[in-house]
């Protein structure tokens, strides 16, 4: 597991929402994409991915529908709702503030 | 928020579909992983193994997803329910005993609640019924008295408390149109009577103020029933003339079906759809004459005006009226009673007592169930210990056990509801004939809600203590002990004994109640009514005013009727009287003069007055104590004679010879013809079988003071039913326009007069029996369990030389101790509840020593019988086998 980092608490939802900003995706694609974009640093365990997806769906941030995948299999696609987009905006901003602040503390102390 | 709810609801109702989707979603992910692994150059086997490893626990992921879905609570409940069902299935006897006892108790509660809901809680079928109130006069001698018509007019004109006010009085009519002549229940009502009740005629209109003027009274409003049965539901009937009392009445309206009579006190007709026609009450006569009282008031209180405030204002008006008319207003006050209170009356207390009784039965059933659950919990010690040892939180164990008891109580409730459906039908058929609102009693929505609530509360009540106790099991101890028979914890033993004591105590209270009701019922049927009800046929006749204008005509008719009936085969004696015993007759004369006596201040001479033909007393079987009955000679121009009852003789002429004594209705009697002479004294007849004493009463000769509406009494030598045709034929021969009404056997009148007490006794008796049975099961359960827990000890004792009889005695003594403490507590509770019983019993003290001691003996006997079997088992145990079994 060298070079890979466990996700901090609460960031998983943010990553999922961000990934879905480019369009509907199924669970596998979401986890692959996060891994790819983060240059293989971040991995999402399936054990946390699916409960998170179901939780987001319950909160109305994403919605699901069944479609067929690139290899012609039936798959469940998730997409952002308008509430989800707003939530993503809000959380992204919050994340930036947080990282900047943490970086300042780490560097300036 | 809404999304969340919708999602959860979908998750709940589409549970199966969601599970399938989840499975498919995860399988898709797995397949993708395998594909990827293969692309990376793994073999098929390797790819799958690697994917499985990467995936983590398949079931665990699913579980987390379910939790994320927010339906875990339900899933857990389903799981608990499935587990509980399996548990009950595995112990069917236990489950059946629990469910059946609960079903009986919950069913009894639901049935009684149905009655209370229909009779007390459901609104009366009038608009804003809570604003309706009945208006009476009240004095020391007559707590509830009808109004004088002119007083009513003043009340109506002067008050500010009521939106509207009306009066009504019973006046049956003889209808001769549309078939055989028939007597109808009729009421004379003032204008606006239906408006006060908030009812609208189906056709036409109701009476206006013009109809109250004497001479405008030949109008009638028909009930739906009469309109349908006698006039073929003719929609053009308004304006038509019909013949009633041999006079032409114009139909001005028809009331819709479901027009309920609000009930009345004077010549009463019970609440319900019991009135056939309404005619306009007219205010005839001299408005300064305020002595006669025979109309009943009803009013709609203004919004926000209380009955109390209305009473204060009406009393002020009453005082005013009294001053204006020169009366001293002595002793009369106005009584305002909310209509619902007036209709339900004394039955409310009866119903509350019955609800209390079934409530106790339910408590006993709960105690019983708790006891049985604790026995089971000790048998399940190992199972619970294992679950605790595996790390199940205590709350989870409590929850599991509570699910089980709720499952039992809900099953009991469902079965109980089925019993209630049948029970309510039986209850309604048992109800006394004059019970108010009997047709409003159904198993309805509120009853279903009540049953559900009671079931849930019952389940928690009997399940909580055993569940909490079981969850306190120490896993290590539980695991060690459970393999062997052990003595239950001291705490548990005490709790279970306390429950049995409570059961026995409550059952004793119910048994004492049942005993009191039985004594009341027996007292009433054995009370000497003052007349002979056997071989007695009664009926009533009403001579129309138009045909029988003079007293002579009326006297002649009843004289001829008596003679003709006497001549019928099988008739011993036949007479006519103004009333029959126990029919609610309440005609009073007050303020008369007794020769040589002075009334005490504010206490006029008063008595019930009646009329009778010579044979009336013989036909009724009323005893002659002194003097003579009336004869044919006591007629119009002869000196006026009176017959009085024993109470009147003793009250106004104590220790005197009353025969020949005189009284008068003149304020200053001068001539001989002003006086009435007492010629006979007859035995007392109480107003009702449970009245505390007879009222003073006197009779006029029907031939001297002729009354047109009379009751007929015919004493026969054989079955009185055989005289019915003879009666009808005789009346028809004398006057074909007359209708013979209210044909009854006096025996059935007497029977129905104690129907309330019979009803109460049967129900309380049933509940007490059920309670005793439950308490016996409880006692048996506890004793049997202790015996089974102590087999080892008993075996040792026997092995060491103890006598078998001594063991038997020891176990029985334990049971006796519980029973004695329980009954003593029950007796104390019953004695402290004596004021509750007081109004329902007759001729027996609520602390009757025979009943109290009888119940103590009965309960102890039952407790001994219940514990004899387990005690015998203990004494017969074989020490060798017992000890080896360890």
Largest sheet of chain B: 10 strands, mixed
Which oligomeric form is depicted? heterodimer
CATH superfamily of chain A: Winged helix-like DNA-binding domain superfamily/Winged helix DNA-binding domain
**Helix vs. strand class of chain A:** alpha+beta
SSE pattern of chain A, N- to C-terminal: HEHHEEH
Strand order of the largest sheet of chain A: 1-3-2
Shape of chain B: elongated
Question: How far apart lie the N and C ends of chain B?
Answer: 62 Å
Structural class of chain B: alpha+beta
Mean pLDDT of chain A: 85
Domains of chain A (count)? 1
Instruction: Summarize the amount of helix of chain B as a percent range.
Output: 40-55%
Describe the structure.
The complex is a heterodimer of chains A (109) and B (886). Chain A has helices at 11-20, 27-37, 46-58, 82-108; strands at residues 25-26, 62-68, 74-80. With 109 residues, chain A is of the alpha+beta class. Chain A has a 3-stranded antiparallel sheet with strand order 1-3-2. In chain A, a hairpin with a 5-residue loop joins β2 and β3 (74-80). In chain A, α1 crosses α2. The longest helix of chain A has 27 residues, at 82-108. The relative contact order of chain A is 0.16. The model of chain A has no long low-confidence stretch (mean pLDDT 85). By secondary structure, chain B is α+β, with helices and mostly antiparallel strands. Chain B folds into 5 domains: 2-70, no CATH class; 72-126 and 346-483, no CATH class; 146-331, no CATH class; 485-527 and 754-886, no CATH class; 548-736, no CATH class. In chain B, 53% of the residues lie in helices and 14% in strands. Chain B contains 28 helices and 24 strands. In chain B, strands 1, 2, 5, 6, 7, 8, 9, 10, 11 and 12 form a 10-stranded mixed sheet that branches. In chain B, α2 crosses α3. The two termini of chain B are 62 Å apart. At the A-B interface, α2, α3 and β3 of A face α1, α2 and α4 of B.
